[in-house]
Write a structure and sequence with these properties.
single chain, alpha/beta, Chitobiase, domain 2, Alpha-d-glucuronidase, C-terminal Domain, six-stranded mixed beta sheet, 20 strands, 35% helix, 13% strand, binds 4-O-methyl-beta-D-glucopyranuronic acid, Alpha-glucuronidase, GH, hydrolase
Length: 652
Amino acid sequence: MDVDPAWLPPALFRAVGSRRTLVRGVGELVDTVHGEVATACQRFGGSLARGPRDGSCDLVLDLSASGLGDEDFTLSRDGRTTMVTASGGRGLLYGLFHVVRLGEAAFGGARARETHRPALALRMLDHWDNVAVHPVMGQVERGYAGGSLFWKDGRARPEYGRVRAYARLLAACGINAVAVNNVNVHDTEAHLLTDRVGEVALLAAEFRRYGIRVHLSVTFAAPTVLGGLPSADPLDAAVRAWWAGAVRDVYEVIPDFGGFVVKADSEGRPGPFAYGRSHADGANMLAAALAPYGGTVHWRAFVYDHRQDWRDRTTDRARAAYDHFVPLDGEFAPNAVLQVKHGPMDFQVREPVSPLIGAMPRTRLGVELQATQEYTGQQRHVCWLGPMWSQVLRFRPEGEAGAAVGELARGGLVAVSNVGDDPFWTGHPLAQANLYTCGRLAWQPDAEPRDVLGEWIGLTFPDAPKRLVDGLHAVLDGSWRTYEKYTAPLGVGFMVQPGHHYGPGVDGYEYSPWGTYHFADRDGVGVDRSRATGTGYAAQYAQPWAEVYESPRTCPDELLLFFHHVPYGHVLHGGSTVIQHIYDTHFEGVAEAEEARRVWAGLTGLVDPARHARVAERYEEQLHSAREWRDQVNAYFFRKSGVPDGRGRRIY
Ligand code: GCW
């Protein structure tokens, strides 16, 4: 099998490719648009007009519009001709893909002029790819789709046609930036900034054709490890000069370079703390070096103590990002983006929205999601995360009258990519839906996720019969909640096997230094994060949330154990006790996964055999793992609490 076409199967281009099209304008992206249309015409018998006087056209893609942003486009139809106008190459490309998505619908009847523009200017994927295969993490850290698309045998692989194919897929869902290496920058990868930047430039050339700018993850210690300086102190003039020089050299070879991604003072990575400097000092030094060229530094807020003592009940990892960064509000340079994970912990299946989002009005905030399913089934389980991300993006940190997270994310939406060199791109073919959803939600954060999924289905499976469309919705729509049901309950999180994070390990992290505890004992479970009696985390929220989360009486059920330690007999708003809820959801979750597997089996013949087989095989593993989760979690809580299942089901 060649590369999976994902959401750009050739058949999709029939409507455009069977018509007569005029592409007007000059530039690399216009050439890309022209090339796309030409390929489609070759396939479907349409034609390209040579100029405005070369006969009448069904479709005009015109770059000469004024007054639109670089990424915007308009679409209209006077009854005979469909018109896409744009002022920038990206806008034209997005306009073309929009017409492709519409298919025949783009060519029927009149259509009043509509303007399309992305809500967020930066829509980015971060790859946690290593150049060298890391002894523990493998090549792609938390990668579940094979090796890296970008790096092989220790060097860049621009000739590998899949880089371009990837760029094309990303552009077609609206992504405009990619970081090509892991935020944990190891020794080999550090050199991508300096003597190996030429390899990054080769990748950048591939991405540029599709309007995507390349970013690099860099180590804060670069001046010492690469430059031979005695220090990396951000206020040291020699250090600043070193960075300025390094950045200048990068822009020599990559004129549209996007900027840096930095993980500093986090999980052992170097950072400004070693020099007694603040994270604003660190970020601003890099921002200053990038500013003359229009680059941005993405400074990650994932800073916490990963060596805490589990005996210490006062340290709360969830508090860390807020405690570190809120005092720095207003200090970050305009071209610094503070990149915040959407939840306060670490991409669990259920977390509250990070209280940092909304709490730094004078800072450009980027929100980070994780498409790679580290804690959500590692692309062996079906877990479409659209509903979770949408909930995050629609959350209003200051209540109904305030702005939504999707509006507060002025620095953009960033997702950790779930893609590798797997023939299906994402290991689990249905995980492509997560990647697509990231792009579309970054374009329109208040989009209805189920519509986005519907769009993905329509594109990936063109001309699908209703039975297939319904089947895909049936296995994907509720898959996140299904996964939540059979894993860690009520927002408490983790309970995974340490290290690789796959499969149940209820006490896996309970006595570890990582700050991820559930505190289950014979009487109850959960983390008291209230202001009154707990770690005070709940008070990091603005009203109304601080109050809502403060008390178990008002805290939403699904987050109860994130915020409170309650007895097993505590009655949820839903009416059952915590312990009974644990049993019920774990049985239900497995039953739902079994049902999904059955639905999928019934789609044989409607999906191409290789894809069908890959998904079917993963369902076997999902089921096996889900049962393991169910039985271990249920047994664990039965043994702790001594409370039997009210429905008398088998607990081990
Ligand atoms: O979720 C944790 C992962 C690490 C990752 C880290 C981060 C890249 O387990 O593998 O490191 O988060 O986001 O920096």
